[in-house]
Structures are given as C-alpha cells and as structure tokens.
Amino acid sequence: MDLFEYQGKQFFASFGIPVSAGDAADTVDDAVAIADRIGYPVVIKAQVQVGGRGKAGGVKLANDTAEAREHAGNILGLDIKGHVVHRVWVEKASDIAEEYYASFTLDRSAKKHLGMLSAEGGVEIESVAETNPDAIAKIWVDPVDGLTPEVARAWVEAAKLNRKATDGAVDILVKLYTAYVEGDADLCEINPLILTPDGRVHALDAKVTLDDNADFRHPERAAWRGLEVMDPRDRLAKEKGLQYVGLDGSVGVIANGAGLAMSTCDVVNQVGGSPANFLDIGGGASAAVMANALEVINTDPNVKSIFINIFGGITKGEDVANGIVEALGRVDIAAPIVIRLDGTNAEQGRAILKSHESDSLISQPTMVGAAKKAVELAGGK
Ligand code: GDP
Ligand code: MN
Prior knowledge:
Layout: H1 5-13, E1 22-25, H2 28-38, E2 42-46, E3 59-62, H3 65-75, E4 79-80, E5 83-84, E6 88-92, E7 98-107, E8 112-118, H4 125-131, E9 136-141, H5 149-158, H6 166-182, E10 185-195, E11 201-203, E12 207-210, H7 232-239, E13 243-246, E14 251-255, H8 258-270, E15 277-280, H9 287-298, E16 305-312, H10 317-330, E17 337-343, H11 346-354, E18 361-363, H12 367-378
Parallel strand pairs: 14-16, 16-17, 17-18
Antiparallel strand pairs: 1-6, 2-3, 2-6, 4-5, 7-8, 7-10, 8-9, 10-11, 10-12, 13-15
Helix pairs in contact: 2-3, 5-6, 7-9, 9-10, 10-11
This protein binds guanosine-5'-diphosphate and manganese (II) ion.
C-alpha cells in the first residue's frame, strides 16, 4: 500500500522523525480553519499519490487567511497528472536553508537494504541519478547488523551534507531505518529532508510504501485503507482473491501455481512477446476461479491475446477443461485465447476443449508452442 504524504508523516512521527505540525482537510473551509489554528505562514499541499506536486501547482505557501482560502480553493479539485485532489494537508511553513534526499528500499539482488542519501534534494532523484550520480551516497545495510549511528555518520559525511546538518541527519536516518524495518515498509523516502537556517533537520515530504503482507502485524493501519489509489485491475483481483500483478505487455497470462505463472511470463518473453500480467489461480482451476481470472484480464485494454497455461496435478485435466468452458460461458472475452493443458488426464481435458475450439479458442499441446501462438495473435511485442 502506498501512503499519502500526510499518512506517511503520521507514520514517520510515530518513529520519532521530526515533521511539521499540520492537519488534513477535504474542504476549503476546513483547510482555512486549520491554517488559522496553526498560525501563518502555512503550506497547503495536495494529497495525491504522484510526485512533482510542487511543479504542478499543488504546493502553495499562504501568509494569511485570504491566501489560505485562495490556495486551498485552487488546489482542491486540481488534476495532477490524472490524480484529482480531494484532500489537502495544511502544515506550518518551514524556513529552508538546504534540501536533501534520503531513502531506504530493498536491494533484492544484494539481499540488503539500500540507503540513498544526497545533498541534492528537492528534485527528483531519478534526474540526479542521471545527471550527477556521484551526488548520491549509497549504503547497503545487512539486515542482521542494522544501521548503527557510527555507520550513519560515515554515510552522512560521504554525502557531503552541510556540517550543521550532521547530527540531525544521523538521528533521522537511524530512525528512518527503524521505521522502514519495524514498520514493514518497502520504501521510505524523504524528499526534501531539510536543514533550517537555525540548524534543525526535518522531513518536509514523506513517500512510504508499506508491505501489505505484514498487515496482520499492524492492525492500526486499517484506518489508512480504503483511501489508497489502486489500479482498477489490481483492485478487482484483490476483491476476487487472485494473485495478480499487472505488467505492461500484451499477452494476458493465467497459470496454476506461482512457479508456472513465472515460467509462463519467461516463455512469453523468450518467444518475442511480453506478458500483460502475472496471474496465479492456485492449485485448482474451477470454473469460478477461471471466470474471475478471465474477468480481471478482460478489463486490461492492452491485452491482445490470453495464454492459459495449466498443469494438472491433483486437479484432473477434465475438471480444468470443464472449468474453462464454463468460465467462457460466463464471461464475454474480447481477446483470443490459447490454452496449453498438460499433466494428469491431459488427454481427456483436451478432448473436452476440442469441441469448443475456434479461431478465438486454440489448444496447443506444448508450453512453447502455446506461447508462440499467443504472441503471434497479440501481434508480437
Ligand atoms: P513534491 O513536489 O510532490 O515532491 O512535494 P514536496 O512536498 O516535496 O514540496 C515541493 C517543494 O515545495 C519542496 O521541495 C520545497 O522546495 C517546497 N516546500 C514545501 N514545503 C515547504 C515549506 O514549508 N517551506 C518552504 N519554504 N518551501 C516548502
Ligand atoms: Mn517531494
């Protein structure tokens, strides 16, 4: 789950990371009331899950009630890169001497947590990485060791932050690491992390992605749910209890078992296509589950063909085939479907499919053959 900035700041504050005092509002009147209460100047910030709000006019400084009313009115309802603003965050404005960047994510190939710190903050880190990669100091933290203040200090020195910021930055980075690990986050990013003219270090923005698999450890997070912006396909898949990951190719993939689903994506790539998704329907392949899977894939306009790859184990081939046929009766599918059915009682299963075959329902005995056919029907990449 991606958090909105104001939720990310609540999350940071619960780990002792300094953030500005503020409150969220859904109406202009509420925003003005919060601003009056906090005291001017305040910053009014669009709560949308997309970067570059500042440049898009979604972050404005207000010096008095009239300005607060004007900015809140302009920001609420604003469309930022396709995200309409329904909520603003109003916080005490900070004086900024310098803007830095700090983040933790997981580096899967290194099997370590990756920390990135830069004296060039406030701008998108991708552009710093492109134009001036040396300006990003990286550390890889072994999860067993954790991040000690000593290591954090050396890291801050390597990033060449202003000396005045060293102690504050070390304190925040150790807390940010704790928030990232104990808070079960996949990403914790502060951009900008600021140094104020009077020498305080402070998080001015918050970008946090939480690991949904750890939700059971954090019942308090239920309040953050329901507001998150999800891809409609992801939302539908979640409602249907399917293991679905949207990708950007043109071949819809359905397989039983995560391993087979991954191999199917690999094979689609290997024969020159690209998968539109990963979808594991689990061990069985009942009509209901198959219909749900097809329904989710059907909502993706990029899908030009569908590759159903089923290896029957405990589930028998004829049950799978009957499930597929029944599912096709329930859902009106736009794209042609290629089915590869193998494993237990595959022959019986294929015999059932035979009478339903057409230009838009093709059975292929092998995985590679089926992948090639699906990619061909999708028109290549
Ligand atoms: P983003 O553009 O979506 O990343 O939104 P940010 O929260 O990072 O804000 C964008 C920029 O607005 C920051 O880099 C700051 O330069 C500026 N800004 C945000 N809050 C304040 C504030 O309290 N005081 C001042 N002076 N500038 C601010
Ligand atoms: Mn930012």
